[in-house]
Amino acid sequence: MADTGTVSTSNGSTKEHDGSFTAKTYKRRWWILLVFSFNNCVQNAMYNTWPPVADALQIGFGWSDSFSAVMLLMYCTAGIIGTFPVMYSIDNIGVRHGMVLSTAVSVLCSALWLVGLPLRQTWLLALGSFLNGLGSTVTSSLPTVISTSWFSVSERTTATSIASMGYLGAAVAFFAGPYISGANVTASEVINKDTLPTEFVDQLQNGVLNILYFMTALTVVGFWFTIIYFPSQPPQCPSKAQTHPRESFWPGMKHLLSNGHFWKLTLAFNLPNGIFNSWIPFCSVSFRSLGVDEVTSGWIGFSALLISSLLSIPISWIADRFKRKLKLFLQLANGLALALYLILALIQRGCISISDHQLSIAVLYILSIGAATCINGFIPIYYELASECAFPVDESLACALLSTLNNVFGVVFFLLLLIPALALDSEWMMWTCVGACALAVPLLFFMKENYYRLDVDTACTQTDEEYRAVAS
Questions:
Q1: Cβ distance 57 to 63 under 8 Å?
Q2: How far is 183 from 208, CA to CA, in rounded Å?
């Protein structure tokens, strides 16, 4: 057995020795993680800009709920079309240039929105959403690349959780919608929108424009953070797995397409996650039938995404201590999410009746936060297990495939929203979430977990050929 040890250097970095290999981490890794996570949050905030103010858009601009669905549809379509070309480009130009282009595209998106909204040119708004979807292909595909490139094995899952906290940005959009805009719209005002005073309508129009100014400021800050300092990789690797050669783009793609266990995990992740994160921006529409106003729905969505994003850090910290039990974590979380969704669906159906309005609001808070935590709080574990299952395929390619399928489910969900009958009756949304979690149960059960990347870090000698034989 080779001698191992850990040494702290004078500049605050840490070295780990294992025989002839020396792993090293740098203090600057926290800046890299902060900048990446910030930009991920900003792009998710822009993704969720429109649905939380759907009622204000109906009154102020005469745009139905379908407008918000189209905006999210454009975002997801861009993710489907652009993910693999963007990942192929990053494979050649490096992570830094990819991040600079990603944040620059977000700035361009916000500029198009600022021009398009006052002119009421919806095609400019839709083009902006498409560009934001293109830019987000970088941040949605690279969380495990950032954690593997900069963080040690003991910090990797925790770092992935922080890098993938984009839904924290979506939570900010729930807050920004009603409070920055001042768009406190009730269900009765939507019904009687033709009788509302002109001053109130003008206030809503200016409020929505203020949201776009806020989003623009965030994109500019994220762009300059990236320009200031964001190298593609550290001078020295933090773990053995990072030094292991990765398969190039096309061989890696072929390997993933033939990896049955990776596909089971991918579907088990994207069925609940893709459907839930397509539904949560429209929770104000979904809860409207229960007499919940837009501001309260916004707070429910904000609380659900905020708490689930923050809880992903301690959940990942615990998972870092049980490296070879990730599948069990996911099975428990998915089972609990299924139960919570089912209760929500039964409440909306009227099978469970709560007479007290304040108590019903509290129940919606608890169930929504619990479901969001079981879905979004475990995203980093899905990313890590997918990277383990796909290794030696590059982590960016594995996560790109996860995010692409996530966008596919989003496109299907938003297309359903464009059907007039389904747009009027939102009950199907919740039952879709129930069905998605139910389908994930057998997928996780039959999926075989592999930890080849972790084996490399723990000095196991399994060959690539032996790994493929197990994975297949």
A1: yes
A2: 8
Element at 304 (helix H, strand E): helix 294-321
Answer whether 143's CB lies under 8 Å from 151's CB: no
This prediction has a pTM of: 0.80
Query: Under 8 Å CB-to-CB from 211, ≥6 apart: which residues?
Result: 49, 53, 176, 177, 180, 181
Contacts of 460 (CB under 8 A, 6+ apart): none
Kindly state the tokens that stand for 273: 């996650």
Per DSSP, 246 falls in state: P
Q: Which of 20, 43, 18 is nearest to 137 (CA)?
A: 43
φ/ψ of residue 14, rounded to 5: -125, 135
Q: What angle do CA 392, 394, 396 make, to 5 degrees?
A: 150
For the record, the structure tokens of 420 come out as: 């007039």
Sign of the C-alpha dihedral computed for residues 95, 99, 100 and 105 taken in this order: positive
Sheet holding 21-25, edge to edge: 4-8, 14-18, 21-25
Separation CA 227–CA 282 (nearest Å): 35
Q: For residues 151 and 162, what is the distance between their CA atoms, to the nearest angstrom?
A: 12
Tens-digit pLDDT profile for the chain (472 aa)? 344 444 444 445 555 545 555 768 889 999 999 999 999 999 999 988 888 787 788 887 878 778 888 898 899 899 889 888 888 888 788 889 999 999 999 999 999 999 999 999 999 999 999 999 999 989 988 888 898 888 888 888 888 889 888 888 888 887 776 677 666 666 666 666 666 777 877 888 888 898 899 999 999 999 999 999 999 888 887 777 666 667 777 888 888 888 888 899 999 999 999 898 888 887 877 887 787 877 788 788 889 988 998 899 899 889 888 878 889 999 999 999 999 999 999 988 888 888 788 888 999 999 999 999 999 999 889 988 888 888 888 878 888 888 888 888 888 888 888 887 777 677 888 899 999 999 999 999 998 888 877 877 776 444 444 444 444 4
3-state secondary structure at position 219:
helix
Residue 207 burial (10 A CB sphere; 0-12, 13-18, 19+): buried
Question: ∠332-409-414 over CA atoms, to 5°?
Answer: 125
DSSP string, 435-455: HHHHHHHHHHHHPPP--HHHH
